[in-house]
């Protein structure tokens, strides 16, 4: 089919990374608040001051960042808790009784923290407690990277399609998947249900139950700094990305009718005669299913799969205005000859060919993550072929989460 080895001349991708830190771990012990005198109620009955305990303890130098900060009050209720590092406030929450406060996310490795807290006993006497400590910094450090695959070079600051997945790649295996997954927070102006799914030990992908609502902003806040990714391995940086979902661009291609229809926000904007895979072999058969637009190049070099120069059917071509929709070599692109097939027959090696004007329009207006639904062939698209994650029912998708 049209590619299998594509070396895009102008293939556009971009990735941003986070760093993981590996080394020996330090242990931390609980700490106590300062000792307070008892107080007097009505001049006769003595009521002890509330006792506040802070973990990590005052002076700790190798506190485990994945254990966070815990502040507890005995004999009273917590009134305030402040945890800071370099002027930044650490998020946290009280329990219903206000006898305990816990940080929401993990702490940063190799960082100094200051905790201040107040509590009151039953007669209103105020107790104060403080703790300053440092999280561990491994001495035998090894770095690794993680990246987001969903941002394409040249699209920075622009928009993404309603099918866009969020993909986080780690360069080494993740053993503690639950801890990593708990640190990944996705928020949207128009929220819909979604879930993460692990693809092996080094990739986790977020997909919504239904397509993203169009025209909104989505944020990924990966609170990874301090997460114990594996034994002796801590993430040292958070990863935050904000991106925009643009128009709902839904392309439907019927290979039996050789016709492509593009709708934008529900309105039909293009009807195009096309030609798909000729079906003589499995690899030359276009896959049926829900694809996503992944990347594009102009031109893209396409070489016959499994054939060498001189073999029957060998080709090595530069194809213009090519938009990738799978990892098995399928593109929507400008026709390279055989215009007579457009709208009449399937003559390609697996790609979807379009007239020149239509191919150029599609290339220039497409967003990464746009939907391309193809029907009418005997070859089913697999959910792990490129970004074809919509091929799995959502209930099945969720089973790949470490938390479900």
TrEMBL record:
What pathway, per the record?
Answer: Cell wall biogenesis; peptidoglycan biosynthesis
Q: What are the residue boundaries of the L,D-TPase catalytic domain, all occurrences included?
A: 249-375
- Give the InterPro entries listed for this entry: Big_10 (IPR041280), LD-transpeptidase (IPR050979), LD_TPept_cat_dom (IPR005490), Transpep_catalytic_dom (IPR038063)
> What are the entry keywords?
Acyltransferase, Cell shape, Cell wall biogenesis/degradation, Peptidoglycan synthesis, Transferase
Domain of life per record: Bacteria
Q: Where is the active site?
A: 333, 351
Q: Write down the Pfam families for this protein, in alphabetical order.
A: Big_10 (PF17964), YkuD (PF03734)
For this protein, the record's SUPFAM superfamilies field holds: L,D-transpeptidase catalytic domain-like
Concerning PANTHER family, the annotation shows: L,D-TRANSPEPTIDASE, L,D-TRANSPEPTIDASE YCIB-RELATED
Which protein is depicted?
Ig-like domain-containing protein
The organism is Actinomadura miaoliensis
